[in-house]
Amino acid sequence: MTPRTRPDLESIPAYVPGRSFPGAVKLASNETTVGPLPSVQKAIAEAAAGLNRYPDNGATELVAALSHRLGVPPEQVAVGCGSVGLCQELVQITCDADDEVVFSWRSFEAYPIITAVAGATAVRVPNTPDHGHDLKAMLAAITDRTRLIFVCNPNNPTGSLLGKVELEQFLDAVPDHIVVALDEAYFEYVRPEPGEDLADGLELAEGRPNVVVLRTFSKAYGLAGLRVGYAVADPSLVTALSKVHTPFSVNSLAQRAAVASLEAANELLTRTDGVVAERQRVRNALVDAGYEMPPSAANFLWLPLGERSAAYAEAAAEAGVILRNFTGEGTRVTIGDPHENDLFLHFATGQGRALAGLA
Ligand code: PMP
Hints:
Elements: E1 25-26, H1 38-48, H2 60-70, E2 77-80, H3 82-94, E3 100-105, H4 110-117, E4 121-126, H5 135-140, E5 146-152, H6 164-173, E6 179-183, H7 201-205, E7 211-216, E8 229-232, H8 235-244, H9 252-263, H10 265-288, E9 300-303, H11 309-318, E10 321-322, E11 324-326, E12 330-334, H12 338-349, H13 351-355
Helix pairs in contact: 1-9, 2-9, 3-4, 3-8, 10-12
Bound molecules: 4'-deoxy-4'-aminopyridoxal-5'-phosphate (PMP).
């Protein structure tokens, strides 16, 4: 007899990670191409010597370092096993069965999965025609069962960005018993145009106890393999998060590496300038080749290829570049090193043009 599991798991898709295979250039998972700094590697090696002990479940040192850097009291900081761990914990602390979680769609593909795993209902609000969040429609989607709203800014996978004023108006209109998670996993890649209003979740959360800001060490800080992210939230929410947190799930190597990365924050954040310059270069080349695509505020670009996306990503993989395919919707391309981006551009402006319907 087959061991019995929850029948509803049948309808929950498994998370699909970006593919990779040896020798190919991987532009599928929005990672940083550069390995950890020597100072961070040293911290990891030192922490490795103490792996016979459990990690500090309260991540005291990391919470203190984040509190210092972000200028918020430590009671307002929670760390998680990646920011995806915190996304999951947020669903767990807000939702009972059949409660609703609202988010824009297409967005981060973990949102519907963690919602369904918690037995809650995902309410997907279609993106605007220009691939951004439709905040009006998201407000209209709120019901008396809504407990949590994810706002992904910049949005994965489309790269769209919400401005401060529109986000403020949205937050003011959301009933204040509903938790709003501002998922800013790609915040460090945002470069507002001169005169443009930058939406900084930490500022928006001030005076709004229902707003939670999520950030991560996986992207700009280059620690995707260690799994550590953080939330800034009202102390009551931080306490609630601690109740559902899988004990010791932020391991000691991750904690020490994150502290060492904060010590080297300026150096790490300077690296994002190179990614942003490459983002512009790659997008310009694609637009010149005839691609119609939205601008991106993150470390990836979105090609809205619709039904053509699967064949496009498949051909790119055969050409040695792994992209992220969203069948029927589009293809996401992470910005890598210049030579990796060149390999992608060689495909995209050559063989890829016909597959994208441009030739
Ligand atoms: N939020 C968004 C929007 C993401 O794209 C990702 C990673 N793909 C995450 C959260 C989770 O990142 P991590 O768990 O590595 O911090």
